[in-house]
Amino acid sequence: MPSFGTVLSPIGEIGVVSDGMAIRRVTWRSDPPPETDAEPDSLLAEALAQLTAYFDGALRNFDLPVDLGRQTDTTRAVLMALYETVGHGETLTYGGLARRSGTEVPARGIGAIMGANPVPIIVPCHRVVAGDGLGGYSGGAPGQGLVTKRWLLEHEGALPASLF
Q1: Which of 84, 88, 120, 143 has CA atoms 20 to 30 A from the CA of 151?
Q2: Tens of pLDDT, residues 114-132
């Protein structure tokens, strides 16, 4: 049975689901999904510790196995290219990620794939930006996607701190 835990962060409470072999989900919610164990497995405990260290500024790269769930081969290729090649403090455009992943997905399609990412922050979809600005972001509290994306990029030093 998967286990669930949460970590408090500057962008809200983040929930994490682990099956003991891989991290399966990262969400902005504090209620456990149905059929999860309240007792954290060792991988979940490590994921929560790594997320805490990331938000404290002490961790730059996650070292966690992830399970992207059921995805098309193209979606998997794009998300894995992101996970494996776009590091802390870096950004890449939607089109740049399409090229890097070796797919023929147009930039708009890359945006849809980022929205389907089951493990945001760990698979850093916040690092994918538009050619002329931040682009979109579906993470964070409802209605706070771009505020969350900006905070994450500022936290990593990829954007100058906001004046507001």
Answers
A1: 84
A2: 999 999 999 999 999 998 8
pLDDT band for 142, please (50, 70, 90 cuts). confident
- For 78, residues 6+ apart whose C-beta sits below 8 A from its C-beta are 97, 98, 101, 103, 105, 110, 113
Rounded CA separation 159/90 (Å): 9
The predicted model scores a pTM of: 0.91
- DSSP class of 71: -
Residues recognised as catalytic: 125
Which residues make Cβ contacts (< 8 Å) with residue 40, sequence separation at least 6? 3, 4, 5, 18, 48
- State percent of the chain over pLDDT 90: 74
Average pLDDT over residues 23-27: 95
